[in-house]
Amino acid sequence: MHLTYDIIVVGSGFSAIAVTCNLIEQLPASAKVAVVGDDPGFGRGTAYRTELYLHRLNVPAGRMSLLPHQPDDFVDWLKGHGRRLQAGDFASRSDYGLYVRDTLARLLRKRDGRCRVDFIKAKAAGCVERYSSTLAFHLGNGDEIAGKNVVLCLGVGNATLPVAPDGVPASLRSRIIENPWRLSWLRRVASSDAVCILGSGLTMIDQVLALRAHGHSGKIDVLSRRGLAPLGHAWKPPTPLPIDVERLPNTISGILKTLRAKSRTVADWRAVMDGLRPETQALWQRLSSKERARFLRHALPWWNIHRHRVAPDVFDRFEKLVLDGTVRFHAGFLKSLGAEEGRLVAGFRVRAAREIAEIRADWLVNCTGMERAGISHSPLLKEMSRFELIVPDPFGLGIQVDAASEVIAPSRISPARLFAVGALTAGQFWEITAVPDIRVQAKAVVEEIVSRG
Ligand SMILES: Cc1cc2nc3c(=O)[nH]c(=O)nc-3n(C[C@H](O)[C@H](O)[C@H](O)COP(=O)(O)OP(=O)(O)OC[C@H]3O[C@@H](n4cnc5c(N)ncnc54)[C@H](O)[C@@H]3O)c2cc1C
């Protein structure tokens, strides 16, 4: 089957749904849209598929509306569904997934004057430029669809294990959890099993709390390059300290020095981070390539723990487990994965030392996250790169786009327009992985498409 659309949205996570909702709101009835995605939990993606209440949003409900022009939309949805939460509270991620799907369903129910939207459950496997001024996608189900405008919303995929488990016998391989978001692994863990988690970000905290919720009471060793864990939001958030980006230095070391000095002038350092938050994209865009590289090499772990904070009650729970010795942190680089006497052995070089140390565990869970997955996780993106339809970002942050999120690919000849939304565009925007930024980008991309007709 071959079908042609005005707009093709590729993906089925939050970004794809945010783009689709804006398209429904802005396109004329004559327009035809296809949304292509292979995810059974359409609209929920990895982030909002979880069923556990303790997997909470890390952004207050009042900033999580899918539609930036209706800021109270999510808070109203929560109230309408009997949740006693206010704008400053941290709702569950499963509720957020339901809200996203409800919002889309609500818009689709309005049949009068709305554009046609076809949801196609398939993976986009390849892409070619057609002489008909379209980009055509080969789908996993054998169909082909072509569009004059395309929005890539592919997320970033999961990072793979940093070391191949060559030394691990087949009988123990099932104890290496490469994708912790398939939560069924938790049911196989015995209460006293020792667990080793690779990576110490938000995913690690989610997995630790999920283990506890499943009755696990054994020790948990966490290994990451710096051994730093996310910090918590304040119970009483401070007023953000306004930051004038134009007056910040141009080097990462100068910026950090200024921010540290500002932190000393306020009662709570979060005021500085929260003041910087709306300006982060502008700050990133001012940095030279050299300084961006410097940031990624030296400052990223510190940025992550201060910027990506957890809900205060979640933080308190996690901290108790650290203080009572249940969760132990190790800073170092994973060097080997082996097995001994029926257990997994993770060998690592201790940070700032030559010493090699070992963690022995019954389970090894990969929580190294998705901050810089580049394009290697996606066969589609790799093929598009080979055909020069996209150009990878030089820092491995996704693909090159301009300030309007339009893909920059000088060798592309077709006038069909290609955009990207979400974390794939981090090279241009940096701060583009969370809902408050993606929803603005999704709306802007749709406005751009509509304005050019
Ligand atoms: C665990 C977790 C918790 C988070 N919590 C928060 C939070 O509290 N607040 C917040 O603001 N942000 C949070 N985030 C950030 C979150 O990433 C974004 O909010 C959002 O979910 C990103 O959506 P996305 O659609 O860009 O990517 P994804 O959700 O990864 O979706 C990408 C989609 O593309 C599909 N796809 C990939 N390749 C193809 C292909 N070739 N053909 C068709 N479909 C394809 C995938 O199947 C997937 O459905 C969290 C992220 C994670 C992982």
UniProtKB/TrEMBL annotation:
Name all FAD-dependent urate hydroxylase HpyO/Asp monooxygenase CreE-like FAD/NAD(P)-binding domain ranges.
9-156
Under InterPro entries, the record lists: FAD/NAD-bd_sf (IPR036188), HpyO/CreE_NAD-binding (IPR038732), L-asp_N-monooxygenase_NS-form (IPR052189)
The domain of life for this entry's organism is: Bacteria
Q: PANTHER family this protein is in?
A: BLR0577 PROTEIN
Identify this protein by name: FAD-dependent pyridine nucleotide-disulfide oxidoreductase
Tell me the organism: Rhizobium sophorae
Q: What is the lineage of its organism?
A: Bacteria, Pseudomonadati, Pseudomonadota, Alphaproteobacteria, Hyphomicrobiales
